[in-house]
Amino acid sequence: MNIATTTITQVQHELLCACPSCGSAELSGIYAQDDVPVSSCLLFENATAAAAVERGDIRLTHCAGCGFIFNAAFRAGASEYSERYEETQGFSPTFSRFHTRLAQELIDTHDLNGKEILEVGCGKGEFLLLLSHLGGNNCLGVDPSALPDRIKDAPGAERVTLIRDFFTPDMADRAFDAIICKMTLEHIIDTLDFLSVIREAVTEGSQPLVFFQIPNAMRILTDAAFEDIYYEHCSYFTDGSLVRLFEKAGFTPLRVLHQYEDQYLTIECTVGEPTAAMGPALVADDDRAEIASLAAVLAQRLAGRQAEWAQKIAAAAEAGKKVVMWGSGSKAVAFLSSLPAPQLIDAVVDINPNKQGSAMPGSGHDIIAPSELIGIDPDLVIVMNAAYCTEIMEDLASMGIAAQVVAL
Ligand SMILES: [Zn+2]
Question: How far is 3 from 25, CA to CA, in rounded Å?
Fold first, then answer.
């Protein structure tokens, strides 16, 4: 999700020359990729429209000052976040279980019952529905791709208000007990400015729980996870760079957690001196030297892993096997963008009915329902996110498909 609250005066191909998180000019380029789709969750009605998706460049840049990694070629506003943007993972039982557990944990840990909650970048509002339904909380969500009509009959909807817009501090019309922002900060290049806007939205004298969740960039660095590098994600954080940014923006970090098989990085903060119930302020480890050494070899390791996958797919096609991908989200767009011969993939499966019948941004592959695999009878299914493997293998078995299943 994306909340671009400020504009960056940056023309195409001009690279940012100061770190958006700390202002340092000690920057070095660590990975480059040209002409990738700028919008990987948009719905396109056919392959021609999908191939004409706007493209942009990735120039991953490492800041020695704070350890932040960002796309210095990112153009704020290039990616479209509208009603055509379909990002929800709510159709996956695995993700729904994680989401429900996360909501319940937040409610229990921070006594969020009957409280006021703001979510910036709330997507379609699924998480607020859970917080309303499970904790009786009054919730306000802001997001340019929100669809208030889609949730109006859902349990908890009576306490959830959605605003379809980018967030501005004046929307925070009351003191909130919790301010939540999930899977949004990684879409924002002017990171310090954005957090300053959130800080400004905190009512004087209140001490909300501030909860942010983003992808864990340490996983990209250690696993060479090229599928997690794509245009919309312009900002990549590890524990240290995240804590340093929040401190600089005037927050008091309380704790950092790794969740969802280490894929997500979560930070909990407040403002001012923490209360006894909140526990002491967090003193983060300095991970800058470790990040710098991993960043220095990233391009080489990404290239190696990309070549391995290209080879695996080419060998399968050569042997007359049918290869499909499972998952059509951003990881899938990044994966297809990295392949020298994406046409060797026969189709892309997605369980989200809102995506089925559309075409993949860039490559133009058909997005099909799982049931359509019966007609294709694939030999190899490449799963975009290992977290969904069990669920996918159950689906395949129920359709009598005995394909080999491999996860990225
Ligand atoms: Zn920096």
Answer: 25
